[in-house]
Each structure stands twice: as structure tokens, then as C-alpha cells.
Amino acid sequence: MSRIMTPPWPRWADLKLPLLSWLAAAVLLLAGCSVRAEEDKPFSIEPVKGNVYRVLAGHYRSVFMVTDAGIFVADPINPAAARWLKSQLQARFDAPVRYLAYSHSHPDHALGGEVLDGPAVTVIAHVRAAEDMAWTRLPTARPEVRFADQLTVTLGESSVQLQYYGPNNGRGSVSMRFMPANVMFVVDWVLVGRMPYRNFQGYDVHGVIRSTRALLAQPRFDVFVGGHGDVGTWEDVKFYLGYMEA
Predict the structure, then answer these.
(1) Mean pLDDT in the chain?
(2) Structural domains for the chain
């Protein structure tokens, strides 16, 4: 025999807002635990090509470029990684950090910017990434330079070409081509040596396909570095696109 429960049992309408608040808090707690777990893992630097280097922090990756005019750093990843990287840059290279650029707005790549920021450092992000960081009050260095489509940063004889392709993963996600080494850096929406995040959570799959096609339609890059996974080539990215299209 079925029953209809009446007060004092709470109704869904009464529970909905507290439950959603509890779920949001749980998600933030889990994200914080994940970041702390990554901070406990060892860090390392390895050469990629020419004056471009890769930073490894757990299963996260970033890059930086060293020139006589200064250093260009991509994603800081997290505060612990940024502190370690800052100490290594000071110990290994006779050049200051001049630029810090975010690949997109996700906190697991963009935290720690305040560690590398300074009076002589210019912080860069796409307009949508900068907007998202402001809306979510992300505790990292705020972008001072914002761009909509393309931006080229020149340091001495080297340059970094930043390009936006539309929605793919995260807001304002861009590629960075480091020249003359011709190294391409993309985070989250292109992966080499591993699968995309399970269930494609946070992905605009059609946007990923369109963005990857546009990336491959540009002049070929010699080396690909992703925010996760292995170092690869243009051919590896083409293989990844074939998987996404299948």
C-alpha cells in the first residue's frame, strides 16, 4: 500500500537549496584535495627544443621559454609548482620572468600566478578566461593584457603566438606557439599519450574537433606539448583528431 508523506517530513523544495550548497562544498573540497595531492608530487624540468622547456608537476605539464630579454612562462599549475619553478628559474638562468600567460581559466592549471607575478611581469589571458577568473574570484594573478583572437609576444629574437579557436575545454582556452623552436603548447583539448578526461567532463566535443582541425590547418609545428600526457608531433595530434572524429 502506497503512502503520501506529509510534514514534519521535509519537502524537496525545502531541501533543494541546502542540498545544492552541500554538493557545491563537496566538489570544492574534492578539488582542493586533488590540488594538494598534486602539490605533494615531485617537480622537474626537461628541455623540449631550442630555448623551450617543459615543467612536470605530477600529471600536469607547462612550458617556459628563456631569452636574453627575459623568460616567458605558461601556466603556473599550482602555488607549490610555481614556487619551485621560480626558484629553479632564478638558479639556472640569468634572466627575469617577463611574461606569464594562462592557457585557460581552470584552477588546476591557473593557480599560483601570484608567485610568479611581479612589477616587471606582464600577465596575459584570453578575454573569456580573464572574465571567468574575475567572476569566480580565482585566487591567482589577474591578467593585465587580454586579447580576443590572436596575440604575439616578442622577447629578443624569440616570440610566442597565442591563438583562440572558440569553445573546446574551459573558457578562453588558447594555443601557444613558441618560435623559432616551433613548439606548440595546448592544454586539455589536445592530448598525446593518454585519453581525454573520463566521460569528456567539461568538454565541448564538437568544439574540440573544430579547434583541433583549425590547429592542424596552420603551418606545421615541430613539437607538441600538452598540459597532460607525452610530448608529441604534428602527426600525433592528427591521430588524436582522428580518434575524436571516429
Answers:
(1) 86
(2) 39-188 (3.60.15.10)
